[in-house]
């Protein structure tokens, strides 16, 4: 019994690390260690920058990258996924801290973690495919714009005490402080950004541009004692040591009003992590387990707040770097986390010299690179419905927030989808066509008996297209004695369409007329059977093909009064 439970659990919760270690050898270990160290070095400036931009202390980003990065690699469903804080969370986390405080952000993150575990346990990992591409492009570009906007203060050295979280107040604050630009800060930020942007790609594999920019910027500030803001002047430095276990306090009343922001974190975390894993799949010709990945992401977000960490998810850029560095298993992600830990234990005191201007430059480049700007340039090539979804999601993300953007974007996408499927559904008089088999064409050429009308129904019969059934009788000059509906091409049917079909049958029966259904597919067949519709029209009036339908119609014609 115990073995049976263990087998079931291993099928339900099976980290990719277990399978990846089969046949693991020294050569793969060496490659994974090299890739892990490379990604760990790259992750350092990003983790610090993401945390500061989110309104948290720099160590929160580093500890998140260490703890969440380790858990996501050890327990996740992808062979090469790298987890940690990401730019996509900056706007959301900053808004939560401004509105609810840092302590409640920790609770929000834990709640989001529970939601992610529940989503994975409920096998909802594949639901990501139901998010249309224009919607994802819209909110990704919106987040990119907001990240860049959030760095205006640090990039230009503006004198703004607290940067507002909302879009228009943020613009207003920037406008009011426009005359407080610090020239030295601006030069340092601009040079750092240009250095990262034009850094030779051939060198990036061995010496990543963000870490080189960070080292050079820090060295210049330290050597020349430049009067610019640094981690030391703003935060006092980064603790040299392990994070302390500090569970956040909460009440059930607190949980109630944090549900909405927690859902936002969970939604974005799920989307970004699964997108990142999918990108990695394409690079290594593999297939990740989306449900296992969600559960690992959830566990990481439950554990990390106990050590003061911020939300974490799969990081697309770091995952891609991990693959390009030769990673073959989750071991590289574990090494990435351990590399960050060693850096903190050894080099934390040097962080006091890191200029915020260089960190802002790194984030501005991250924002530019994460945006899918090609979507705007090719907007005219898209269907109008896709363009509307993209623009609506983009504008709502920038002006309001991600939750509103995704909700409205999905609603608009669903409306357009319903319209598209409705337009594809046709009900028309059956005539000879290339789609018909030879037997049906022959039957129609021989002629249809007087008093019999044959209609071809094509597409999905659902609430959006159900009225097309009711319009059948209004399009005929005379009410037929027998109406045959060819349903071979009806792929699905819902209760609304069935109701209209029942109404159509009722009108025919009221005048002593008959309805014959010809060749319904599996799903419509079972729906009508279970609803008792076949009993209403008579099972003898449900036939497999047009030949049988015409035979049955001839049997019914003599019954005309």
UniProtKB/TrEMBL annotation:
Main location, first listed in the record: membrane
Alphabetically ordered keywords of this record: Membrane, Transmembrane, Transmembrane helix
Location within or outside the cell: Membrane
Membrane topology, from the record: Multi-pass membrane protein
Listed transmembrane segments: 33-53, 60-82, 134-153, 173-199, 211-228, 257-279, 299-317, 337-368, 389-418
Pfam families: STAS, Sulfate_transp
Statement: the UniProt record of this protein carries the keyword Transmembrane: yes
InterPro entries per record: SLC26A/SulP_dom, SLC26A/SulP_fam, STAS_dom, STAS_dom_sf
Stretches assigned to the STAS domain: 450-553
The keyword Transferase is assigned to this record: no
Cellular component terms per the entry's GO annotation: membrane
GO-annotated biological processes: transmembrane transport
CDD domains: STAS_SulP_like_sulfate_transporter
PANTHER family tied to this protein: SULFATE TRANSPORTER
Protein name: Sodium-independent anion transporter
Organism the protein comes from: Ferrigenium kumadai
High-level lineage: Bacteria, Pseudomonadati, Pseudomonadota, Betaproteobacteria, Nitrosomonadales
């Amino acid at each position: 019994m115990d073995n049976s439970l263990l087998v079931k659990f291993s099928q339900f919760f099976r980290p990719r690390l277990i399978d990846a270690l089969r046949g693991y050898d020294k050569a793969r270990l060496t490659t994974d260690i090299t890739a892990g160290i490379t990604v760990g070095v790259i992750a350092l400036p990003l983790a610090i920058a993401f945390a500061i931009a989110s309104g948290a202390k720099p160590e929160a980003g580093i500890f998140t990258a260490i703890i969440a990065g380790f858990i996501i690699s050890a327990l996740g469903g992808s062979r090469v996924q790298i987890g940690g804080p990401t730019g996509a969370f900056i706007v959301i986390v900053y808004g939560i801290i401004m509105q609810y405080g840092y302590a409640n952000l920790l609770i929000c993150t834990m709640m989001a973690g529970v939601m992610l575990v529940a989503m994975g346990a409920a096998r909802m990992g594949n639901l990501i495919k139901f998010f249309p591409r224009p919607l994802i492009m819209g909110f990704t570009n919106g987040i990119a714009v907001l990240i860049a906007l959030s760095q205006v203060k640090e990039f230009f050295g503006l004198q703004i005490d607290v940067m507002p979280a909302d879009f228009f107040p943020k613009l207003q604050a920037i406008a009011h402080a426009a005359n407080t630009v610090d020239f030295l800060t601006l030069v340092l930020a601009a040079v750092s950004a240009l250095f990262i942007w034009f850094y030779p790609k051939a060198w990036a594999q061995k010496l990543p541009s963000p870490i080189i920019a960070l080292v050079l910027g820090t060295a210049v500030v330290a050597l020349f004692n430049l009067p610019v803001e640094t981690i030391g002047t703003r935060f006092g430095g980064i603790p040299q040591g392990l994070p302390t276990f500090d569970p956040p306090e909460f009440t059930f009343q607190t949980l109630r009003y944090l549900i909405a922001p927690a859902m936002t974190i969970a939604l974005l975390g799920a989307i970004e992590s699964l997108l990142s894993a999918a990108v990695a799949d394409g690079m290594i010709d593999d297939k990740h387990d989306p449900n296992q990945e969600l559960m690992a992401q959830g566990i990481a977000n439950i554990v990390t707040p106990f050590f003061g960490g911020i939300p974490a998810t799969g990081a697309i850029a770091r995952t891609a770097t991990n693959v390009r560095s030769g990673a073959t298993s989750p071991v590289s992600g574990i090494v990435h986390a351990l590399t960050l830990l060693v850096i903190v234990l050894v080099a934390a005191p040097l962080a006091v010299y890191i200029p915020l201007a260089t960190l802002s430059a790194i984030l501005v480049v991250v924002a530019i690179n994460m945006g899918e700007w090609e979507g705007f340039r090719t907007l005219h090539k898209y269907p109008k419905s896709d363009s509307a979804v993209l623009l609506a999601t983009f504008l709502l993300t920038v002006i309001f927030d991600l939750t509103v953007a995704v909700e409205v974007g999905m609603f608009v996408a669903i409306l357009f989808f319903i319209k598209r499927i409705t337009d594809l559904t046709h009900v028309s008089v059956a005539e000879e066509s290339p789609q018909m088999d030879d037997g049906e064409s022959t039957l129609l050429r021989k002629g249809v008996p007087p008093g019999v009308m044959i209609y071809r129904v094509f597409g999905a019969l659902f609430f959006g297209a159900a009225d097309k059934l009711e319009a059948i009788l209004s399009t005929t000059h005379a009410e037929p004695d027998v109406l045959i509906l060819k349903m071979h091409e009806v792929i699905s049917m819902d209760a609304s369409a069935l109701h209209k079909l029942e109404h159509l049958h009722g009108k025919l029966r009221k005048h002593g007329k008959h309805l014959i259904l010809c060749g319904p597919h599996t799903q419509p067949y079972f729906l009508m059977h279970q609803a008792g519709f076949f009993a209403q029209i008579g099972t003898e009036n449900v036939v497999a093909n047009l030949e049988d339908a015409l035979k049955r119609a001839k049997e019914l014609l003599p019954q005309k009064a």
